[in-house]
Every structure is written in structure tokens, then in C-alpha cells.
Design goal:
heterodimer; A: alpha+beta; 5-stranded mixed sheet; 5 helices; B: alpha+beta; 5-stranded antiparallel sheet; 4-stranded antiparallel sheet; 10 helices; 14 strands; 25% strand
Chain lengths: 153, 275
């Protein structure tokens, strides 16, 4: 076990982790933050995407122990985030989710698109979403939801 | 889908990292972003007993700008290059390539040096650095040494890096202001590793008119392509594709041929005065 400090959803923590425990397992099993989902666990599906130091990353590919000093933000911490509230409403209005498994990762990526690429066209949105797999929606609703927020509707 | 047990070290300087590698020869693996190694460890294709995380080493993050060459630290992330937060010595070529690697969430973590040390023949940087004739800077127990591009990659996933060395930086020659370039990647889905790669750097002012055929079985294949850039010839293209190890009539040959033809056309179309 290695002792380390990090910040999770605004709270400074001092924790002990096995080096082999990846960040997503640490969050889900030690912190009981089960909003972060695990799909493929080898960096392909994007379900575990969350924010580290303000940018989206794959939490299944990152040993928790390597996050010493980092600011980790999971989907649970975005309840009161105005932009995420708009994205949630848009996801609902455009039917951008069905089973919901990919949604936490999709929202992390969608939030990054809206903040980083305010001028993105639909093709760019689709390209940026290509690292997050959704097996229900066919992506049309997802692209429209991001579009809706970018357009300020 | 869970990594096997390993120990973890986070050295604060290169000497400490090299010392750890020396003491643990054969059982340690250097990691920076871990976007390839992490997946391989989760799949248990890699089971190092010790991970030496070099992300905390400040000296590996810098960007040093000189007149003819830009030196990028090994732990520079793809996203840092994509966003232009470091100097691009190649008139936008490196930025474009960086933006096409995997997905943003991967680019935020994955590093230039990690990709080069991993040396997947289908990855972008190891191919582009061959085309650009970059120089690799390595640090080991007996100090710093450099490796030129032709000697970097011996084959798939095999580099000049010894077990007790770390890649600290790459030195990338600047293209001239009138250089043209192109980069053509064929893959099944956006963000995946390439099935075929071809790229051109056409820089007569630096006496460099080169083409790359990449995502082949071994190290990237780079050749002097001036005549082919000036005038396409099926026979000349065929000769180079064969030299790259591709067999006429196969799917691999066909997509590499298509990539090469597209790369040459795109390089011709690039406006020399465009920045």
C-alpha cells in the first residue's frame, strides 16, 4: 500500500492505495463514487472519462497512486455546475441517452467540447465524441445535444 | 482487466529514475502517460514488477527553442502540442498530427516520449519523427547520449533504449518557411491506430524532399521523394512500396498506395506561403 494525498470533488484526502488499483476502481470501491462507470478497462470505450486537473482523462488507464497532488472531479461533483446542468437538459431533450451507461463519460467529453471548441461544427462534434462509445443512441441525439448547448438554445 | 501487482516509484529527477532502473534491471518499466502501457497492463500483456513514473521530473517537460532545432521534453503531452502550447518547428505539421492521436482524453495524458519509447509501428510520433529526422536524447548511468532516427527503432516495439536508460527529449529540426507537408492516415475509425500512413515533407530550401511510408511491419520507411512529388509514377511508387516491405495485390499494399498518392497530392496543394 502507498500513502498519498489528492483532492476528490473538492475534498482533500489522505488515502492508502495498492499501486495496481486504477483511479476508477479507487473512486468506486474506496470512495463509493459509483457515477464513474467502467466498460472496457483498456482505454477504448470512454465510459470512465472524468476530469483530472480540469481536463478529461481515462480513469481506467491511470493508477490512483499516480494522482498524488491531483484534483479529480467525478460526475457527482457537477450537480451544481451551470454548464453541466445545460448539458443534462440538452441530453434529455435530444434523447442523447438510453441506458445511461456511457452518460457520465459522455458528459465529461461534451463539457470539454463546449468549453474548448465553441465554434465546433457537427462534424467536429462527432469527431470529438468518437472516443466515447454509446451502444444505444446511434450518436445523432448526442451530436444534437452538444449542438444545442453550443448554440445557446 | 486489472493489472497484476506492481510497485510504484515517482522519482523527482533523472538521476534518481536511472538509479531505480539500474537497481531493478529487467523488472522495471518507465511510465509517463501510460496510455499504451496502462492498457497492456490491464490486459496483462505487460506485467512489470516496478513502475517508474517520470511525470514528476521537471526537466522532462521543457521546450527549448533554438534557430534550427526545437527540443521537446519527453513528457510533453499530445494535447500540449495540439494546442500550440509549445513551439511547433514544423509549420503546423506536428500540431495536426497531435490532434489526430486517439481521443482528447488520451491526448491529455499520453506523451510524446512515451509513444516514441513504446515504438508501435502504427503510432504517429515514431513515424513522423523518422520523416523529420529527429534526434533522440537518452540518459543512462554513464550520462547522456543521442541516437539518430535511423538507429532508433530496430523493429516493432523495439528501440535503442537500454533497460537502464530513459528517453529525456527529442530534437526536431525546423522546417523552412517555404516547406510544404502533408500527413495521410488510414484507419477504420477516428482515433484508432493507423492501418496505413504516408506523409511528405517537401522543403527544397533545406534540401529535403522526403516521403514516409508508415504503419508497416517494422520501422518506418523514409525515402527521397523529389522526383515522385514532381511527377507521379506508378512504377516509382510501386518500387518504394515494395522496399517498404509491402506485397503487391494485398490489402495492405493498396491502402498504403492510396495513402502515398493522397499525401503527395495534398503536399502539392499546400500553399508554400501559408503559415
Amino acid at each position: 500500500m502507498s500513502a498519498m494525498e489528492l483532492t476528490v470533488n473538492g475534498r482533500g484526502l489522505r488515502v492508502e492505495v495498492e499501486p495496481r488499483t486504477h483511479l476508477a476502481d479507487f473512486l468506486r470501491e474506496q470512495r463509493l463514487l459509483t457515477g464513474t462507470n467502467l466498460g472496457c478497462e483498456h482505454g477504448v470505450c470512454g465510459a470512465c472519462t472524468l476530469m483530472i486537473d480540469g481536463v478529461p482523462m481515462r480513469s481506467c488507464l491511470i493508477p490512483a497512486v499516480s494522482c498524488a497532488g491531483a484534483q479529480v472531479r467525478t460526475i457527482e461533483d457537477f450537480d451544481n455546475d451551470p454548464l453541466m446542468a445545460r448539458l443534462r437538459a440538452a441530453f434529455s431533450a435530444e434523447h442523447a441517452l438510453q441506458c445511461g451507461f456511457c452518460t457520465p463519460g459522455m458528459l465529461a467529453t461534451a463539457r470539454d467540447i463546449v468549453t474548448r471548441l465553441p465554434d465546433a461544427d457537427d462534424a467536429r462534434i462527432r469527431l470529438e465524441l468518437s472516443g466515447n462509445l454509446c451502444r444505444c443512441t446511434g450518436y445523432v441525439g448526442l451530436v444534437r445535444a452538444v449542438r444545442r448547448v453550443l448554440d445557446g438554445r | 482487466m486489472k493489472a497484476a501487482r506492481f510497485e510504484y516509484a515517482r522519482p523527482l529527477n533523472c538521476a534518481e529514475a536511472v538509479g531505480l532502473l539500474q537497481q531493478n534491471a529487467g523488472r522495471a518499466k518507465v511510465v509517463s502517460g501510460g496510455q499504451s502501457l496502462g492498457a497492456m497492463m490491464n490486459l496483462r500483456l505487460a506485467q512489470p514488477e516496478l513502475l517508474v513514473d517520470i511525470r514528476a521530473i521537471d526537466a522532462l517537460r521543457g521546450c527549448e527553442v533554438a534557430e534550427d532545432v526545437v527540443t521537446l521534453g519527453a513528457t510533453t503531452t499530445h494535447a500540449t502540442i495540439e494546442d500550440g502550447r509549445v513551439t511547433d518547428p514544423t509549420r503546423g505539421l506536428m500540431r495536426e498530427v497531435a490532434g489526430g492521436i486517439a481521443y482528447r482524453a488520451v491526448r491529455n495524458r499520453g506523451t510524446l516520449g512515451g509513444s516514441l519509447a513504446h515504438a508501435d509501428p502504427a503510432a504517429d510520433w515514431v513515424n513522423l519523427m523518422a520523416l523529420l529526422d529527429a534526434q533522440y536524447v537518452l540518459q543512462g548511468p554513464s550520462g547522456v547520449r543521442t541516437v539518430d532516427t535511423p538507429n532508433w527503432m530496430a523493429g516493432a516495439f523495439t528501440t535503442a533504449l537500454r533497460e537502464d536508460e530513459i528517453l529525456t527529449a527529442v530534437r526536431i529540426p525546423r522546417l523552412s518557411a517555404s516547406a510544404r507537408w502533408s500527413y495521410c492516415k488510414v484507419n477504420r475509425k477516428a482515433g484508432e491506430f493507423a492501418q496505413a500512413l504516408a506523409a511528405i515533407v517537401d522543403d527544397p530550401a533545406r534540401a529535403r524532399r522526403r516521403a514516409l511510408i508508415g504503419a508497416i511491419d517494422g520501422a518506418p520507411y523514409v525515402f527521397d521523394a523529389g522526383p515522385l512529388i514532381d511527377l507521379w509514377s506508378d512504377a516509382a511508387a510501386d518500387l518504394q512500396l515494395r522496399r517498404a516491405g509491402l506485397k503487391a495485390g494485398t490489402y495492405e499494399y493498396q491502402i498504403h498506395l492510396t495513402a502515398l498518392a493522397r499525401a503527395i497530392a495534398a503536399s502539392r496543394a499546400m500553399n508554400r506561403s501559408a503559415a
